[in-house]
Amino acid sequence: MKSNVEYSTSCIIHLNYPPPTPPRRGVVSPTIVYIIHHPSYLITNSYLCNPEMNDKLKISKVIVLTVTHFSHDFYTAILAPLLPKLIEKLQISYFSAGFLQFIVQIPLFFSPFISVIANKPHARYFVIFAPAVAAILMSIIGLVSSYWLLVLILFVVGVNSAFYHVPAPVMMKNVSGKNPGLGMSMHMVGGEAARAIGPMVVLGIISAYSFEGIWRIMPFGIVTSLFLLWLLRDVPVTQNAIKPSYKKMYAAYKRNKNVFGLILGLSFFRAILASGLTTYLPVYVKHVQNDYGLALVSLTVLEFGGMAGALLSGIISDFISRKRMIVYITVLSPLFMLFFLYMGNSIFSIIILAVLGFIVFSITPVLMAYVLSIKSYYPVFMNSMFMTINFVTGSMTVLMIGLSSDLFGLQNTFIFAALAALIAIPFAMALPESEKDMPK
C-alpha cells in the first residue's frame, strides 16, 4: 500500500512540480526536494491523490462547508422577503421586482468559464470570503433609494455568488467520500436553512429598527469568513488538479450533451414552479392576506420543509436509484402546488406549504449528486454546467412569472406554473438510469 508521501509524490510528478526526472541511485529525488521547500503541497496533494482518504467521510469538514453555504445564502436569501418592501419603497412593478432577482443570477450564466479559475486548490478562498462580501453588500440595500443603484449592487452580489457556487459543491463532494448524496444534502440543507431563517431575522430587524436598519445583520458574515479562513485552509477544490484544457472540457460536455439537454428541459419547467414560490410567495401572501408578517412566516414554513427535503432526499439517493427519486419528485411537485392553491386561506394551507417545500426542494441535491456521478477529469466544470442550467432557467422563469403576474394576476400565474411543471415529467423519465447508461 502506498504511503501518503508516495501518493503526493506521484501526484506532484503528474502535475510537473518539478519536472519528472528519474533520480540516479543515491541522489535525492527533485520531487522530494520540492516537497521539502513547499510543504503545503504535501498536505493538499495527499488529500487529493490518496484513494483511501478520498473515500472516507470527513464529517467535520462536511459541517463546516454546510455552515459556509448557510452564511452565504443567508444574505442572498433575504432579497425575496424584502421584495414587498422594495415594491412599496421604490414603486416598482412585479416584473421590475423579478428583474432584481434576475440580475443576481446573470453572473451565474458564466459558470463554465468561472470553473476554469475555480479548478485550482486555492479557489477555496472564493468560498471562504463569499459570506463576508455578501454580508456587506446585502446589508446596505435598505439604505438604497435608487432602483438602478440597487441593480448594480445586486449584480456584484451575483458575481460573488457565482464564484461561491461553482467550487463549493465540488469541495463538499471531495470530503463526502463514498456518500456524495449525503454531502449534497448537507450542502443544500445549509442553503435551505438560510432561506428559512433569513425571513424571520428580517422580520425581527424591520419590526425593531425599520427597513433601513437591516445593516445590523452585517457582522455575522464577516466573522464567519474569518473563522473559515482557518477551518478550510487545507480543503482543496479539485481532486485531480489537472491543468484546465478548454478542448477536454468541451469534449466532456459533448460526450454528455444529451444528458445535459434532458436536465435543461427538466430544470426549466420545474423552475417555473420553484421560482414562483421562492420569489413571489411573500408577495402573493401579502396580496391575499394583507399581512407582511404572515407573508414571511409562509416563506419560512416553505423553506423549513425544503430543508428537511434537501437533507433526506440526497441521503436516500445513496441507496436507491437517483433517477427514480427525480421522477417521483417531478410528479408530486405540481400536484401539491395545485392542492396548496385550492386550499386558499385554510389553516391546512400552511401544512400543505411545508409538504410542498419538502417535495419541491428535495430534487436539487439529488440532481447535483447525479451530475457529479458522471465520470470526468473536470468535476468543477461538470458542476458548473449544472449550476449554469439551474440558475439560467431559474432567472428566466422569475421574469416570466413577474410579467405574467402583471398581466394576469398572481393567482392565475401560480396555477399556470403548476401546470407547466407537469411538462418536466417526460424529461425526468428519459434520464439515463445510472452511470452504466451514460456516455463513456
Describe the 3D structure.
By secondary structure, this protein is mainly alpha-helical. The chain has 2 domains: 55-238, Up-down Bundle (Growth Hormone, Chain: A), CATH 1.20.1250.20; 249-439, Growth Hormone, Chain: A (Up-down Bundle), CATH 1.20.1250. 75% of the residues lie in helices and 0% in strands. The protein is built from 22 helices and no strands. The protein has helices at residues 4-14, 30-37, 39-49, 51-55, 59-76, 79-90, 94-105, 111-118, 124-138, 147-165, 168-174, 180-209, 218-231, 246-255, 257-289, 292-317, 322-343, 348-360, 363-372, 379-408, 410-421, 424-429. Residues 1-53 have low confidence and may be disordered.
- Listing every helix as H and every strand as E from the N terminus to the C terminus, the arrangement reads HHHHHHHHHHHHHHHHHHHHHH
Radius of gyration: 23 Å
Low-confidence stretches: 1-53
Pairing-aware structural class of the strands and helices? mainly alpha
Globular, elongated, flat, extended or rod-shaped: what is the shape?
globular
User: Can you tell me the number of structural domains?
Assistant: 2
β-strand percent reads under 5%
So what's the oligomer here? single chain
Q: Per CATH, what is the topology of the largest domain?
A: Growth Hormone, Chain: A
- Helix amount: over 70%
The number of helical elements comes to 22
Record field, number of beta strands:
0
> Quick one: CATH class of the largest domain?
Mainly Alpha
